[in-house]
Amino acid sequence: MSTEAKPFLKWAGGKGQLLNQLSEHLPARIHREPFTYIEPFVGGGAMLFFMLQHFGNVKRAIINDVNEDLILAYQTIKNDVEALICRLKAVEKDYLKIDPNQRSNLFYEIRERYNQHIGDNIERVSQLLFLNKTCFNGLYRVNKKGLFNVPFGKYANPTICNAEVLRADSQLLQSAKVEICQGDYTQTLEHVDGLTFFYLDPPYRPLDATSSFTAYAKGDFNDDDQRELADFCHQLSDRGCLWMESNADCSAKNPEDTFFEDLYRNYRIERVYASRFINANPNKRGKLTELLIKNYE
């Protein structure tokens, strides 16, 4: 049995656990007709890999993210996966043979090299995957200077190099004619081609003052950015595109906070149930609802 393609990184807000629910809300037309699939905020890629493996009628797939290192990882896995696997296997071997009480030294050494941009592209992607597999909670977070600042995670036997998954991801990215872009999400508008379906998974609006614990790139995605994203969605509708957006269910936390209900009042808003796994406080992990906004029935 061949290995299924799936996210190669643990990504805060990743949609792996929601795929069954999200699939129930996909537009009917894409089950019947060839279409272009676009993800302006690709993140960990759970939805991307699901769509490519369940819809043989995807003509083109365009993925984009503002995070340069994330996009470099996709490009490297697509085009040079064996060199990446070789590098990851070497660092995994070095890491696992170290006394567990001393492993943090190698972690912080690699984190420093990563933040100083030391090494070629293969090295940089291997550093990213290593840090993701060995840092606290597998969280990707940078400070306002763009420096990765997640501390060491005490895992007994982490899998740093999952060669089978990396090869499956590479094969799918090559065979599906995936175009990989880096930059502002608005540039994806130029790739609209016939029947086009957008899945938008932007940085979520915080539920409260303490819940905004991640930054995927320098700068925040504030309320003005959320309004600009809504304007972008209006443009998609005007172009005849189908789109679905995931975001935080702020009114579930505070019934008076109807930010998204007001912003997307002309569209259909559904709710799905998600589990929050990444939180420093275990008592704050658990079930919560997320919004699913779409411009179709």
Give a brief rundown of this model:
The chain is an alpha/beta fold and 297 residues long.
Tell me what the structure shows:
This protein has 297 residues and is of the alpha/beta class. 36% of the residues lie in helices and 16% in strands. The protein has ten helices and seven strands. It has helices at 19-23, 46-54, 68-79, 81-96, 103-115, 121-134, 163-175, 223-238, 250-253, 259-263, and strands at 35-39, 58-65, 178-182, 196-200, 242-248, 268-276, 286-294. Strands 3-2-1-4-5-7-6 form a seven-stranded mixed beta sheet, sandwiched between helices. Strand 4 (196-200), helix 8 and strand 5 form a beta-alpha-beta unit. Helix 3 packs across helix 7 (163-175), helix 4 (81-96) packs across helix 6 (121-134) and helix 5 (103-115) crosses helix 6 (121-134). It is globular and about 55 Å long. It starts with 18 loop residues before the first helix and ends with a strand.
